[in-house]
Design brief:
Length: 252
């Protein structure tokens, strides 16, 4: 399989020598490099494709993917955001989900890194505090008041434990609010659609229901057509805000 993609990349290289201003050739060679995990090559070709065709959704997406793999998170996020903007037309609707997944993947990675740094700093601070507690207790022992030193150490260590537990609780992932979840899939929605009866569903889920199960609302059982659906902008704003703060929720 790798040989197949390597041969395809070589073929695109030959084609590029004949048509060096063809953005699609660089883009397609980048896709071959992606299959081979040649991330720097993916980035180089995708950047060249963008230079030739700045509105190429796929090229911006590939820059995002490559930068994610190369740990260039700021550039990755910028590329995914550009791809998301360019993919707003219905023509790119199937590609948009992949772009969103890449974008929230970058946000999740950044958040995890920031949390890891914060946790390491907290661990270091806790170690210092524990050392100070032990030193204070030892001074009481040396002064002949071992009982008071032991009591002081127990009290301060208990307070330190409670502080650590509160910090961990604040860092815990919150549950996804039910109002942001589709009543068919039970997953957080990407494109919430409102029915005349006030129910909200994921666009793809409700459209598939209407196509395969019948023209009725799956909750109220009232008659329903695809043309009756409207974007629920209020819920969409809430979802976007929740995902901004909790990017891990994008992938469940």
């Amino acid at each position: 399989q790798k040989g197949k993609f390597s041969a395809a990349a070589d073929a695109y290289t030959e084609a590029i020598t004949l048509e060096p201003s063809n953005a699609a050739l660089y883009q397609n060679r980048a896709l071959c490099h992606q299959k081979l995990s040649r991330w720097q090559n993916v980035l180089n070709d995708a950047r060249k494709a963008i230079e030739l065709d700045p509105r190429s959704v796929k090229a911006h997406y590939l820059v995002g993917i490559a930068c994610s793999e190369l740990d260039l998170l700021d550039e990755a996020e910028s590329a995914f955001m550009t791809a998301l903007t360019l993919s707003s037309s219905p023509h790119f609707s199937s590609y948009r989900a992949s772009v969103e997944q890449g974008l929230y993947g970058v946000k999740t990675t950044r958040q995890q890194k920031e949390q890891s740094i914060a946790m390491a700093a907290e661990d270091a601070d806790n170690a210092v505090l524990e050392g100070l507690v032990q030193e204070a207790a030892q001074r009481h022992v040396e002064s002949g008041d071992a009982e008071r030193g032991a009591a002081l150490q127990r009290d301060m260590m208990q307070q330190l434990k409670q502080l650590t537990e509160r910090t961990a609780a604040l860092r815990a992932r919150p549950p996804v609010p039910e109002c942001l979840c589709c009543q068919i899939t039970f997953d957080i929605m990407r494109e919430p659609m409102l029915t005349p009866s006030g129910q909200t569903f994921e666009r793809e889920a409700i459209e598939q229901h209407l196509k395969h199960n019948g023209k009725w609302d799956p909750v109220t059982r009232q008659p329903l057509q695809v043309t009756d659906l409207r974007e629920n902008k209020a819920v969409k704003a809430l979802i976007d805000d929740f995902l901004r703060k909790n990017p891990w929720a994008f992938n469940g």
